[in-house]
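Let us practice reading a record.
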Amino acid sequence: MRKIIGLLGVMSSMLVSMPVWSMQQLDDTALAAATGQDGIDIKIVPTGPLNFDVVIHDKDGLTGVPNQTYDSAGAIVFGRAGIGPNALSISSGSSNIEILVRIDADAGIGGNQPTLNINVSLPQKLTLQTGDIWVAKSNSTSPTDFVRGYTLPVKVMNNMRVEIEDWNLNLQLGNEPQGAMIKLGGLVNVHQGIRIDNFVLSDNSGIHSGGGIGIGRINIMDSTPDGFGDRPFNFAVSVDANAQGLVVSLDQFGNGGSNIWLRRVRLGDTALLAPALGDVELRGVQMAGTAITITGH
C-alpha cells in the first residue's frame, strides 16, 4: 500500500510540474521511490507470431567486376515478395512471444566508468522462419513514396525453419566492462542443438539449371567422442562496431568444439523425398576464436 501511495504521489507531482520536469532526468533514486526497486523492466508480449518481409537494396548493383556492365540497383528480399506463402516470422510455439528487457545504469569499475546495461531475455523456445529468399530489381526512389519497392523477384532459397531456445543478450553502452558492446550466449535445445530445416539453394538460370542443392535438416551440437546423440549446443558471441564494420567474435562454439550433421543431402532434384546422396557428418569443428567482420562496399 505504501508503494502504491508513493507511486501516486510521484505521478501527481510529475503532472503538476510537467513543463519543468519533462526535460529533467529521472535517476535511480527517484525511480526507486516510485517502484521499490532500481532500474527499469519492460515486458514485450506481441500477440501471436511476428510476420514481416525484409528488403535490402543494393543501390549501385554489381560494380567493379571485370567484363561485367551490370550496374543497376537490385534487392534481396526475405519473405513473401508479394507472390510467395512464407513470410519471415518469429514465434514461440503455440503461445505468444514474451521478451523481458531490463535496463540499469551503473557507475562502473572504480565509480568512473559509467555504463548503461540493457539485458534482453528471449523466450525459452523460439522458432525463426527466414521466409523464402529472393533477388529482385530495385525500383527507383520517388519523392512522393516512402518505400523504394522492387519488381521481378526470383526465388534463390527456400524458407528455412530455425529452432533455438534459452538465449540471453546483454548490451552495454558508454563503457563496456563485459568486454564487448553486445554479448550473446546460452544453451540451445538440450536435444538437437541448433536445428535448421529445409535448406534449398536453387539454380534458376544458366546452361544447366532447374535444380539445386537441398539439405533436409542441419543440426549443430556440442562435440563429443561418440558422435551424434541427443545433446545441446553451448555458444557465446561478442559483437563490437569499429571503423572497419561490425565485428562478430565466436567466443564459444560448442562444448569442446561442435559436430555438424547434414541430413538427406540432395543434388539436382531438391524435393524432400527425392533420391539423396545420404547424410554428411562434420566432427570436431573448432570455430571458437573466429572473428567475422560485416561491412558494406
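A brief commentary: Confidence is low (pLDDT under 50) at residues 1-26, 28-35.
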